[in-house]
Amino acid sequence: MKTITAGLAALLLSTAASFAAEAWKEADVGGTKIYTDANGMTLYTYDKDEKGKTNCYDKCATNWPPLKAEAEAKADGEWTVVDRTDGTKMWAYEGKPVYTFIKDKKAGDMTGDGVGEVWHVVKAD
In the chain, which ranges are E strands? Predict the structure, then answer.
């Protein structure tokens, strides 16, 4: 019985890690290394957010959908999980919550970079 329990625990831990690994990925767009969601859509940060806290709700979140994190998601290196006031969770890179942009239509689009001088592409180090 202990073997089954240990095996199940290991499976659950690896599954939680896989949620993180599948939420974002690194991409090269025009010679710039950036982070995207699992579908290749560019990720952005918002200057009006605070470290570990999002300030993008309602119309903002409609135009800039948060990169959702599963309820059981755990931090992974520079990637952390932020709680939203609606009870959901989202991913943050280096403490800054990350979003996609509704006007980006295909993988590699970066039309949100510089919008309102407060939105910025998340560049991979």
Answer: 24-29, 32-37, 44-46, 68-69, 79-83, 89-93, 96-97, 119-121
* 3-state SS assignment for residue 58: coil
Question: Domain residues of the chain, as ranges?
Answer: 24-121
| Residue 81, Cβ density class (10 Å: 0-12 exposed, 13-18 middle, ≥19 buried) | buried
Q: What is the pLDDT along the chain (125 residues), one digit of tens a residue?
A: 544 444 434 434 444 444 455 899 999 988 999 999 999 999 999 999 999 999 999 999 999 999 999 999 999 999 999 999 999 999 999 999 999 999 999 999 999 999 999 999 999 97
Closest by CA to 98, choosing from 71, 124, 29, is 124
Kindly state the tokens that stand for 15.
Answer: 């599954």
Is residue 59 classed as helix, strand or coil in its secondary structure? helix
Closest by CA position to 19, among listed 32, 41, 38: 38
